[in-house]
Amino acid sequence: MGPFVVSSVRSTQTLMYDVAEYIFESPPRTPPETSPVAKPAAVNRVLEWLEPSEDEQEKILRPFEYLNRNPGKRIRATIIHAFNYWLKVPEHHLQTICKVVDMLHNSSLLIDDIEDGSDTRRGKPAAHCVYGVAQTLNSANYVYFQVLSHLRLLGLHQTASVFCEEMLHLHGGQGMELYWRDNMECPSEADYLKMAANKTGGLIRLAVRLMMALSPYKHIDCLDIATLLGIHFQIRDDYKNLTSIEYENAKCFCEDIEEGKFSFPIIHCLENSSWPQVLLAILRQRTKCRHLKQHALDMITRSGSLVYTRNVLNSYQQEITKRVARLGGNALMEKLIEQLAIDAA
Asked: Biological process GO terms, please (predicted)?
């Protein structure tokens, strides 16, 4: 062993002893043959030492806070308050649920933008374009676990299981969408609807399941409405991605075509167009060329896929409205549904 290696080992040992002395007040310079179980006070000192300082946490969270300072429409908070029209969860618990859902939503957007190769989010450069992929991914994952700490404040024994189940649903849905895109495998409409129920319905169901557990009205079950809203949201987002000037200004023209994504209108077009291989060829290129994207959009329009999508959205809106009525009506939910409506052709 060379002198440099010996010196490095000794420096490492010295540092280890210094750390041990800082935590335990007496360094374990001669390890015993059997290690005793640490005392609670010693465990607490270890955990206190490991806890990130405010300065460290600020640095870890910079990509997340960058997006958080550029808020969206906060539609999920509106949804949560609409469900609370029935469930009557105490306000302090409701605020916790709103906070964690917003944290999870923004964290998932950080990851989505990396997975989709998106350069912009809410009209500004995406977080990973500013802070890099590695730091942005770590920041998003860090917030996922922060959420569990916040959820403990609800005092529910099922918090962890609800969180894990719905986050698995969310990432499972996202995983299938990525698989279809990266393998150029067009899903069936039924497979798409299951994906949307998992991916977009996951956070809504997470909130509603926690609210139902905290509600004094245990007989009220809103999960079907939560899932239908998630599907409606995803199809609506797919439609607006191809048709909305507002969306184009915030992101880009026909971003789903550029990403090669099998969105709801694109799936319908591939199943009903006379020349599906042309659209597939454009999707495969992941093109940024506006002319090519416009050609693809023209095919989608001629195949009747945008009209079909609007009519499906209208059907979901009607079904949600029926189920709201079965629960005795809900002025907040009815207003929300009206705001989300896209008229059927």
From this structure: geranylgeranyl diphosphate biosynthetic process
